[in-house]
From TrEMBL:
This is ST8 alpha-N-acetyl-neuraminide alpha-2,8-sialyltransferase 6. The keyword Nucleotide-binding does not apply. GO terms for cellular component: Golgi membrane. Belongs to the glycosyltransferase 29 family. It is a single-pass type II membrane protein. The keyword Transmembrane applies. GO terms for molecular function: sialyltransferase activity. It is found in: Golgi apparatus membrane. Keywords: Disulfide bond, Glycoprotein, Glycosyltransferase, Golgi apparatus, Membrane, Signal-anchor, Transferase, Transmembrane, Transmembrane helix. Disulfide bonds join C62-C213. Gene3D superfamilies: Glycosyl transferase family 29 (3.90.1480.20).
Amino acid sequence: YRSELEACCNGSQNLLVTQSNTRVNTTIQYDAENKSKLNVTTEIWRKFPQKTPFGYKTFPSCTVVGNSGLLKGSGCGKQIDSADFVFRCNMAPIDERFVADVGNKANLVTMNPSIVRDRYLGLKNTTLKERFVAALSRYGGAYVWMPAFSFKMCTSRSFAVQTTLQEYKSKLSVVFGNPQFMLAMNKYWKSNGVKARRISTGLFLASAALSICGEVHLYGFWPFHVDKHNVTLTEHYYDNALPHKMHKLPDEFAKLQQLHREGIIQLRTDSCS
């Protein structure tokens, strides 16, 4: 799987949009809207890092933290944080309420641009910007990964996040997902039996981790509302929101279980305490 993934999608080089894989005056094709394209001006190009900060198997061990309610009371925090590199999804909270179960180390955290719209009203004034920067400060010096080129509406919001964090001299760096990598990744998992329109952030991060990490450990991946012992679970470890219609999480989970059985990843579905 690892070599297939690297061959199809070249994650170690193409995970992010960079100045070396995306030139000025070329066109970016959005990965979730096939009619949408964007011309890369010099101004846009300057927003990208010169080259990718990651390479093939850069990190000996990584954890990818899903947000399942299964993590509540798991006591997995220390184990999660012991990896060289920790991926987290969708700005999930890591404050003292949750640290025993999910840890608080973060090296890359994904952010859905809709958060900017819904929670911070497009960052349109100083108060909102300050609240936003304060909320993100708990992730230390992590990379904030945003799908700027998935849907047209993501672009300006993702750029606004980058500008705001730079304006407030935040330690965080905003990086943008490469739509070519996303397209290749969706196609790869479709051909491997995942029947969703788009793969979830969790499967995307697990795939990225297989490119840039030696060992990959997954926590909090569990798409069901009861655990193995039939105890009812909330949707996420921090709330009970509903899952997204676009994703096919049980399909994805079956795939992750297969990778676990084959020894390609370690999928943790028990408590750690």
